[in-house]
């Protein structure tokens, strides 16, 4: 991985399950393309599903694509749109790499892996282990999940919710990052 960056790098978290034609896949593709066209590069887990979709969109939009892969998945190759690969031994190192390298984060709807990425990144910012960076949760289901956490009193301080921004629309999410990062 080269350290010569000229564009902000956005980590995108999402599911490996969606296929071309699925709503989540198409949303991730559009997100990647719009991010690249707006002047951002994209980083993801580098494999399939929404990771491939955001990679493809960013690649086709003229952006650089970084995949953070894991040895536990060897010999699975990264998706074909990844320009650079950072290969990590496992999930803890992958999480650390994604959070440390990124200038901002976007979480798509996903499964347990996506929830882990969200909780890890949010936790680092909440504890002060990492300075706060723009963190978008894309889609209405995130708003419902956060409301449930607040209603059921999971002992999350109200001001810690301010570290997250729920945005339901891809265009608005990209504009929010442009505003936040001055791109």
Ranges with pLDDT <50 over ≥5 residues? none
Largest sheet: 7 strands, parallel
- Spatial order of the strands forming the largest sheet: 4-3-2-1-5-6-7
Bin the helical content.
40-55%
| Binned strand content | 15-25%
**Order of SSEs:** EHEHEEHEHEHEH
Count every helix, treating DSSP H or I runs of 4 or more residues as helices: 6
> Total number of β-strand segments?
7
Distance from N terminus to C terminus (CA atoms, Å) equals 23 Å
Number of domains: 1
CATH class membership:
Alpha Beta
Quick check: average pLDDT? 94
Overall structural class, as computed from helix and strand content, comes to alpha/beta
CATH architecture: 3-Layer(aba) Sandwich
InterPro entries: LOG_fam, LOG_family_nucleotidases
Protein name: DNA-binding protein
Organism: Ardenticatena maritima
């Amino acid at each position: 991985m080269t350290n010569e960056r000229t564009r902000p790098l956005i980590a995108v978290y999402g599911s490996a399950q969606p296929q071309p034609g699925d709503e989540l896949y198409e949303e991730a593709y559009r997100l990647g393309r719009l991010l690249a066209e707006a002047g951002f590069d994209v980083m993801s887990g580098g494999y399939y599903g929404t990771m491939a979709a955001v990679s493809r969109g960013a690649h086709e939009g003229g952006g650089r694509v970084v995949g953070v892969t894991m040895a536990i998945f060897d010999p699975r190759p990264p998706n074909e749109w990844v320009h650079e690969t950072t290969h990590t031994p496992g999930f803890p190192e992958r999480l650390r790499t994604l959070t440390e390298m990124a200038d901002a984060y976007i979480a798509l709807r996903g499964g347990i892996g996506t929830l882990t990425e969200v909780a890890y990144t949010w936790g680092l910012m909440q504890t002060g282990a990492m300075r706060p960076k723009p963190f978008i949760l894309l889609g209405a289901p995130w708003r419902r999940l956060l409301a449930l956490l607040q209603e059921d009193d999971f002992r999350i301080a109200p001001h810690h919710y301010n570290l997250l921004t729920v945005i339901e629309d891809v265009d608005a999410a990209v504009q929010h990052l442009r505003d936040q990062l001055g791109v």
